[in-house]
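hi! just following up on the protien thing from before. the input was this:
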Amino acid sequence: MHEVLALVYGSTMLALELAHQRTLAEIELRLRRELVDDLAAGTDNDRAYARAEALGHDLHGTHYVVVVHNPGRADDAIADAASRAASALSLQYIQGRHNGTVVLITDRRPDPGAFHHAIHERLDATPITIGISDRCKQPCDFVRSFADAHRAVHIRLKSRIPDGATAFEELGFYRLVDAAHADGQVDRFVREWLGTLLDYDVTRHSDLVYTLAQYLECGGNYDDSADVLHIHRSTLRYRLGRIRELTGFDLRDVNIRFNLQAATRAWQLLSPG
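and the predicted 3d structure came back as:
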């Protein structure tokens, strides 16, 4: 009888302790998410340092914002994979969510390829788009870092290979396009160089702009361009001939090729879908 009472008492105490630990874990998770939200919205340094310290994280020194995006997968699965990947790469981090994405604030800049691979291993090859901000030296600068990481995700999603990771500092030309898009300068530039072809594609249901884009990305190599486009060399040659006829551009001219490649890259970045 005494043994039964002891087992009942022990199981009750264990259940209470597990419930207590679960409650503490939920409170800590909520506090971490609230801190991430406040850092994204903007908060003062001293308050951020104190709140992070209470959660066992030191926000002093350089940090980075890492945004993990996948609209087709449950947040909990993404969050768990991101957390495990960060731990595997020995990153100190605070995790939360912002604008429908999983967010980590890390003490070091994760290698984009390694971090993407580490998450992929835990998600059965589910396509994942990751954006990594430039360095952030103090909490009051996190607003900009969040914007940069989300911008890196946006640009990556518009690229030919959305499945991958991109660091904001590596965006180069695309940072200029994204920044200049707001006042309409990019749209005017694209229209100036590609307007004739864009109109032709709409009326004839053709793909001359996309053909030109891939041809330029392949450095003008016919074989590589035809392979990427999945067409025969003769078809490619015909399309390039039509492009020359419609625009009057000499694709052998270095300056023309430069401007056309800038325009086609901007078009691919800004085009819906």
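The mean pLDDT is 84.
The first helix runs from residue 2 to 41.
cheers
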